[in-house]
Amino acid sequence: MSWQVCNPATGEVIVDVPCMGQKETNDAISSAYESFYSWSKLTATKRSKYLRKWYDLLIAHKEDLGQLITLEQGKPLKESLGEVSYGAGFIEFSAEEAKRIYGDIIPATLPDRRLFVLKQPVGVVGAITPWNFPLAMITRKVGPALACGCTVVIKPSELTPLTALAAAELSLQAGIPPGVVNVVMGNAADIGDALLASTQVRKITFTGSTAVGKKLMAGAAGTVKRVSLELGGNAPCIVFDDADLDVAVKGALAAKFRNSGQTCVCANRVLVQEGIYEKFANAFSKAVQNLQVGDGFIEGVAQGPLINEAAVQKVESFIKDAISKGAKVLLGGKRHSLGMTFYEPTVIGDVKSDMLLSREEVFGPVAPLLLFKTEEEAIRLANDTNAGLAAYIFTNSIQRSWRVSEALEYGLVGINEGIISTEVAPFGGVKQSGLGREGSKYGMDEYLEMKYVCLGNMNSN
Ligand code: ADP
Question: Is 291 in the pocket of ligand 1 (CB under 6 A)?
């Protein structure tokens, strides 16, 4: 069996890929399990060198990988090239951090004892990833996993498996032994079930929708696997009266329209204070109007297609709901004349907190503007959601930026910045946006077990 990977900008079939299921997943798990022993026994320096070589190869193939991302995912080539640098950065960082996985020596409570904490790899890891960052969502799981001594079975999105295969091929070229990095693609539920059922898989790490994340978390209970989840967001972008207008417009634009609004940290609600609302709405709409829509391979294009028809229909239904409840289209609000799944970059004014645009993640190029009066109201509105991934605030007051950052129930806060993700900082959400952190030194702990070792009777001979 096979299925087709298509270019969302043209609908053209790029290639047929095999459709795998439980059997192939179990084979991949066995291969990861067999490789675990030798990979985990390598010195940290050796693993670090392999990862460094993989990083070098990813960078050497930046142009090819960037083109592959645009081809199967649709984002503008410039963003794809940015994703390659960002994604490769997780491998580089993991190569460096591999050498710093320290244990502890604990002062003993009895004179003839010595107490130690060892950090050891979790084991085989199942990594399930989405289509919106076909490379970076893989490397930020696989980099730390390999650095810690784990081996992996990757299940990329069925929409974007080609970048995953290319990255895995480069891992082999880097000398990482076969069996350490495995890729299975095909029927998501079958592959997921096989990963969940296996007692050899000790951890599931997932980026994707909250609904699937909950399923995986429940499924992991059967074998008491560890889970890390990066799920949906509902990011508020709060523009206060005292913000620098240009900085706020530029930041909100980047936070909202990157990847045509298809990231879990994209601003989902733009909350604007009464005194700056008109000015901001005008300047922001003007900036959005300048975003060129088209095939991501065309120079100057800032907005590619949405990933598929279902994504466009979701956007349409949210806008319909908002208009029926009194919101106003300030810009765009319909499919783009290019057809396919292109959608006009859109700004909607007079949005209220009961509308779908405020309650759920739109995952498209739609910026809903909500008016607020006081700082307290902004915080209340921002926190009035089950999600808690990224939040953005724009203000020139140091006191306010600190106060509001502390009050926001979110895992990441950008102050006067719309793009804040980096491999050196911890990325992850609170509430139903997930569990665990990726990137940074903290991300390593997700792939490590702690073992307490007590050496007793020290004085016996
Ligand atoms: P999105 O809506 O962003 O595509 P999903 O959560 O549906 O988010 O997809 C993220 C990843 O989860 C993809 O690789 C997808 O194939 C996978 N997935 C979807 N359903 C399941 C499932 N039941 N079990 C395991 N993986 C799944």
Answer: no
Per residue in 9-39, pLDDT (tens digit) is 999 999 999 999 999 999 999 999 999 999 9
Q: Could you tell me the maximum CA-CA distance found in the chain, to the nearest angstrom? A: 85
Which residue's CA lies nearest to atom 25 of ligand 1? Answer: 192
Residues with Cβ within 8 Å of residue 212, at least 6 apart in sequence:
128, 206
Q: Which atom of ligand 1 is nearest to the CA of 155?
A: 14
Residue 221: Cβ-neighbour burial (10 angstroms; 0-12, 13-18, 19+): exposed
Q: What angle do CA 252, 256, 258 make, to 5 degrees?
A: 115
Q: Ligand 1 atom closest to Cα of 207?
A: 10
The verdict on the CB of residue 215 being under 6 Å from ligand 1 is yes
Is the minimum distance from the CB of 141 to ligand 1 under 6 angstroms?
no
CA–CA separation, 444 and 440 (whole Å): 7
Nearest CA to ligand 1 atom 27: 188
- Residue of 157, 187, 265 with the most ligand 1 atoms within 8 Å of its CB, for mutation: 157
Q: Is the distance from the beta carbon of residue 220 to the nearest atom of ligand 1 less than 6 Å?
A: no
Bridge partners of 120, per DSSP, are 449
Q: Supply the angle between the helices 210-220 and 188-197 in degrees, to the nearest 10.
A: 30
The pLDDT tens digits for 227-242 are 999 999 999 999 999 9
d(CA 330, CA 311): 21
Beta bridge partners, 106, equal: 115
Protein residue closest via CA to atom 2 of ligand 1: 209
Cross-strand pairs, 155? 128
CB atoms within 10 A of CB 206: 29
Q: Sort 450 into a burial class: Cβ within 10 Å, 0-12 / 13-18 / 19+.
A: exposed
Residue that has been written with the tokens 């006081």 in this structure? 374
Give strand pairing partners of 229: 206, 435
Rounded distance, CA 116 to CA 104, Å?
6
Tokens representing 119 are 């950090």
